[in-house]
Amino acid sequence: MRYTGREGSGRRASADTLVCWRCLIEIPRHLFTHLLIGHYKTLSEIEDKNAQDETADSDQVADSDAVVDSTEESGESNDELAEALREKDQFKRLAQRAQADLVNYRRRIEGEQESSRLRNQQRIVLKFADVIDQLDVALNSDGVDSADSGWLEGITAIQKNFVSALTSEGFERFECVGEQFDPRKHEALLSSPTAEHEPNTVITELRPGYMRNDEVVRPAQVQIAVEPPETD
């Protein structure tokens, strides 16, 4: 059976029409797919952007926390530094006080040692002074004029040597006859009523006294004058 050209034309028209309908059908499908892919792509970009923003926010929060922690640590460090400085000042004051106490203790010990040395020296000197006193008594006795001249010269030389030895150590006799009685320098053993001297005047030296550096190491034993009693 042969078809006419009209029929061929009709078939081609139908085919073309089918193609067109397919195009119409395919276009929305492609468009929908494109839009859908674009939507998901856009959604993915949004999610990535949100994730980046969240990461940035987290980093910012972490940085803020780090700043806060650093500030707190700095504050704690300042407090610890202030406490350390206070303790340093306390220890410094304690060390200065201990050093001052040590210096005072050393001075006190040195002073006590010097005082002890002087007391021992004075005790020895006073023993020699007692020997000198005995020699003085011998030289001033009544029978000295009839004594052997050699013996007298020897005793006199010994007495002078003892006096010189004491003088070289700073111990010297002091004069007291004619002075007013001073209890710091004189020890009154006798008193004699007399109108020839003022009351409390030293009229006789019974035993000489010694001084060292203006300090009395042994008072002189003396006799003083007192006012005579009134007579009717």
From TrEMBL:
Gene3D superfamilies: 3.90.20.20, Head domain of nucleotide exchange factor GrpE (2.30.22.10). It is found in: Cytoplasm. Residues 81-115 form a coiled coil. Residues 70-81 have a biased composition (Acidic residues). The keyword Cytoplasm applies. Pfam families: GrpE (PF01025). Belongs to the GrpE family. Homodimer. PANTHER family: GRPE PROTEIN (PTHR21237), GRPE PROTEIN HOMOLOG, MITOCHONDRIAL (PTHR21237:SF23). Participates actively in the response to hyperosmotic and heat shock by preventing the aggregation of stress-denatured proteins, in association with DnaK and GrpE. It is the nucleotide exchange factor for DnaK and may function as a thermosensor. Unfolded proteins bind initially to DnaJ; upon interaction with the DnaJ-bound protein, DnaK hydrolyzes its bound ATP, resulting in the formation of a stable complex. GrpE releases ADP from DnaK; ATP binding to DnaK triggers the release of the substrate protein, thus completing the reaction cycle. This is Protein GrpE. It comes from Candidatus Lucifugimonas marina.
